[in-house]
Design a protein that fits this description.
Blueprint: H1 2-18, H2 22-33, H3 38-45, H4 54-88, H5 110-124, E1 128-129, E2 135-137, H6 138-141, E3 160-161, E4 166-168, H7 174-182, E5 187-196, E6 208-218, H8 223-238, E7 244-251, E8 254-263, E9 280-289, H9 291-297, E10 305-312, H10 313-321, H11 334-337
Parallel strand pairs: 1-5
Antiparallel strand pairs: 2-4, 3-4, 5-6, 6-10, 7-8, 8-9, 9-10
Helix pairs in contact: 1-2, 1-4, 2-4, 5-8, 5-10
Bound molecules: phenylalanine.
């Protein structure tokens, strides 16, 4: 027993001192001092010794245990100190003279750019900017605009309702009503903003997009004024050689109504892939304000006439910047946005 203990002490201490890292040290600890370790095994044999040999063996056992524990602690300190020393080792870690990382500067979104250009162009033509709520009531979005109850645009399939009377506005035209409720003619405003329709997403449809509404009411406002203002507005944003084409159309709140095409800024009207070879791109709806709308806001229909228009800002931005997919505007891909 005594001999065995001495041998154990020798090999164990060597193993502990030779442990190359914390893991190896832990392995040695388990092997010699662990609950099922070699020292425990010898302790278990103590009762088998003759009585007169027990005290000496017991003492030695304790000595060996203490020696190993001490050796373990010592080696552990040495190993951790080494690691700490490695971390502290001086070296070329931080060069304060290197130039910094340049922060990425954002830019205005392409929609915002064209939105701002439109607002500025119409401001130069004497239009001030008005805003309305994106959550509208049925009266302003439909009834006051002479849109009858059975009109398809009032259907839940074509409109995003919040509750029985409120909806995400399907166009910016309700701002016409809100402005006319507030003031008397002359009125000359534009109303840019978001509109919402439950459209299926594809290259030319998105459930949210931007419109710019225009309204001009005064004595003697004519269709000629409408044509002049819109043509000038389009030329301001798309280029001085832009031509416009007015096609008869229908809106419940204008009479007569027209849809306006602009000559394609890419091929200048000769036909290309942007304009589908037609030379023209549809850009907006417009018309002379229907007297029925004036009646809703209490304007004198004998004294005043006016025109209104609604431009699709997304369509305008696509035409202006040569983009063929509306989804690119709303995906927030910096590789796309960086280009503008
Ligand atoms: N509000 C119409 C639409 O969203 C556009 C429009 C506005 C037409 C003003 C005529 C006058 O389609």
């Amino acid at each position: 027993m005594i001999e065995e203990l001495n041998r154990l002490r020798e090999t164990a201490i060597r193993a502990i001192q030779d442990a190359a890292d914390i893991d190896a040290l832990e392995e040695a600890r388990v092997r010699y001092l662990g609950r099922k370790g070699l020292l425990k095994e010898l302790t278990g044999k103590l009762p088998e010794l003759p009585n007169d040999a027990k005290p000496a063996a017991g003492r030695l056992l304790n000595q060996v245990k203490n020696a190993l524990t001490e050796a373990l602690a010592e080696r552990k300190t040495a190993l951790t100190a080494k690691t700490a020393d490695e971390i502290r080792r001086p070296g070329p870690r931080l060069d304060v003279t290197l130039p910094g990382t340049r922060p990425r500067i954002g830019s205005r979104h392409p929609i915002t750019q064209v939105y701002d250009e439109l607002v500025e162009a119409f401001a130069r033509l004497g239009f001030e900017t008005a805003y309305g709520p994106e959550i509208e009531d049925e009266y302003h979005n439909f009834d006051a605009l002479n849109i009858p109850t059975d009109h398809p645009s009032r259907d839940a399939f074509d409109t995003l309702y919040i509750d029985d009377e409120h909806l995400l506005r399907s166009h910016t035209s309700p701002v016409q009503i809100r402005v006319m409720e507030q003031r008397e003619p002359p009125v000359r405003v534009i109303a840019p903003g978001k509109v919402f329709r439950p459209d299926t997403v594809d290259a030319s449809h998105y459930p949210m997009f931007f419109q710019l509404e225009g309204l001009y009411v005064d004595e003697d406002v004519s269709f000629a004024d409408l044509k002049a203002v819109l043509t000038m507005g389009m030329q301001e944003v798309l280029g001085a050689d832009t031509r416009t084409r007015f096609r008869p159309s229908f809106f419940p709140f204008t009479e007569p109504s027209a849809e306006v095409d602009v000559s394609c800024p890419f091929c200048r009207g000769s036909g290309c892939s942007v304009c589908g070879q037609s030379g023209w791109i549809e850009m907006l709806g417009c018309g002379m304000v229907d007297p029925e709308v004036f009646r809703h806001v209490g304007y004198d229909t004998e004294r005043y006439t006016g025109f209104a228009f609604g431009i699709g800002i997304d369509r305008m931005a696509m035409t202006r910047l040569g983009i063929n997919d509306i989804r690119l505007f709303y995906e927030n891909d910096v590789r796309f946005l960086n280009q503008f």
